[in-house]
Amino acid sequence: MKINITSGRSDILFYTLTAAVVIVYVLINRHIGISFPTPWPDEAHFLWQAHAISTHNTLFAPELNTERSIMWMPPGYMFLTGLYFKVTGTSLEAARFLSLIAMVAFFVLIVRFLANYENRWYALALASLFFCNARFIACGNIARMEALLLLAIAGAFLLIQQGRMLFGLVILGLAPLLHFNGLYFAVSGLAFAFYLTPRKNWIALLNRRSFLAALVISAGWIAYGFLVHANWDSFVNDMAFQFSRKSERNVWLVITSGHYLIAFWAIILGGIYAYRSRLRAFDLLFLAVPAWLIWPIGHELWYEVIDHVGFLFISVFVIHLWLHLVRINKIVTRQWMQISLIVLFSVGLLWWNYDGRRIDNIFDYSDKAELVSMKVLPEVPYLTSDDRDRLSEVLISLSHEHNGLTVEFEPLADAFSYIGLEKEGVQFICPVFQERKPDILVVHLSRNLPTRWQFSKLALKRAGLTKDLAEHVWYSRDDTEVWFIALLSERIRAEEYNRTKIK
């Protein structure tokens, strides 16, 4: 048997470069800690329910609401993270590490998916540049559903591509239980499976194994149905809230303007050309289209990473089309002209994605890589162990003096840096759809917070600390990291624990 040494070396180099990108991504992630992104409200909302799963096997989290369960998202992420917390213990760092692992696996699977088509070096180069973009870095360092959803999608589409369709469809069928955005990929993945299956074999798909797959998917949705039924009023209220936030968005206006318009025609015209030319690259559109549509429909900051996945696949798709036109259809015959056209097109494609902030400036990464003013490589850490120890000491002291203490943090997810204080009698509150007044309000102002962040100002206003703000500072570091402690409880005030004594 003849062994292709050149091909083997090429494969080794390809996967070595893939591993190098992963290492860079992980090193950036470990460097930024919880400074990028700063602790986000969504993390508090989701992680308190995950904490409830971990400790009490329920989605009811009294930190959020003492009267009912919050039902504005499907339970898959909270359930899986809660099981994970049973092993690691609850913490913001642990939850974010789960997202890191998911994003690394996603990248490896996506590279593997794209490598099964031609022109894998172009695909690896583009995927690597996208993967080190601020949105992808943030997705791997925030406790939200997107990282696990992207991992599920990448794994499912790879399974379908390799002919293990039922396994892939089971994952896609359950993906909306992680996030409702998974529904777009479930529909597209089903279409992908039928597209890859000759029409005469469609009936053969309906066999015993497909029945078992449908049973697994149904079991997941039936369990969710029981949960919804048990919390029907909460579900209706929370879904109404979610839809009211998104109902005024004009999807058509977004996808027919700017970069979306270019992508729109690339999908339409390129799709027609690829289908008529029988290019395998047509497959890429099954993943590209739903990813590309999600942000215009949902218009949420954390959906941008999915949007960028869509543009990544569209970019790789048009590379395939252009190389086919230049090399196979030979729109020019001279080799030097072909190479020139390929280089010019590649440069133009890179510029287009750079202009759309889907690729960051790697030559000025420390300054240009940012998300809504949050720097990927912050100059000053958001929280240090000394900061944590100082505040913990104060809260423990107050809790012991007063036989327990309720504390609210701003930013809300800061509380998970102090979760161990629960055993000291500290109870955390993070009210959702409920008015509650804590004993203590801790507000952290930081240069790492987005410039448009208004939550801290509102919290300070609620505590009456907006006038002569400098007089109320409890602790500061590096001239930019400032903490305020407001005593809101009349019980504590009556016992003469004022801000001066706290200092």
What is the strand and helix layout of this fold?
Blueprint: H1 5-32, H2 41-56, H3 76-88, H4 92-115, H5 120-131, H6 134-139, H7 146-161, H8 165-174, H9 182-196, H10 208-230, H11 232-246, H12 251-255, H13 258-276, H14 285-298, H15 304-328, H16 335-355, H17 365-368, E1 370-371, E2 374-375, H18 385-401, E3 405-410, E4 426-428, E5 440-445, H19 455-462, E6 473-477, E7 481-487, H20 490-494, H21 499-502
Parallel strand pairs: 3-4, 3-5
Antiparallel strand pairs: 1-2, 5-7, 6-7
Helix pairs in contact: 1-4, 1-5, 2-3, 4-5, 4-7, 5-15, 7-8, 7-9, 8-9, 8-10, 9-14, 13-15, 14-15, 15-16
What does this structure look like?
- With about 500 residues, the chain is an alpha/beta fold.
- It has a domain at about 385-500.
- The chain is about 60% helix and about 5% strand.
- The chain is built from 21 helices and 7 strands.
- The protein has helices at about 5-30, 40-55, 75-90, 90-115, 120-130, 135-140, 145-160, 165-175, 180-195, 210-230, 230-245, 250-255, 260-275, 285-300, 305-330, 335-355, 365-370, 385-400, 455-460, 490-495, 500; strands at about 370, 375, 405-410, 425-430, 440-445, 475, 480-485.
- The strands form 2 sheets. A 5-stranded mixed β-sheet has the order 4-3-5-7-6.
- The radius of gyration is 26 Å and the shape is globular.
- It starts with a helix and ends with a helix.
